[in-house]
Amino acid sequence: MTVNAGNGAVLNIWEAKPDLARHPFEVYEVGLHHIAFNTDTREQVDDACELVKKLGARLLDGPGEFPYDPEGWYAVYFLGPDGLKFEVVHQPASVRRQREVMRLVEQAMKH
Question: Domain 34-110 sits in which CATH superfamily?
Answer without folding.
Answer: 2,3-Dihydroxybiphenyl 1,2-Dioxygenase, domain 1 (3.10.180.10)
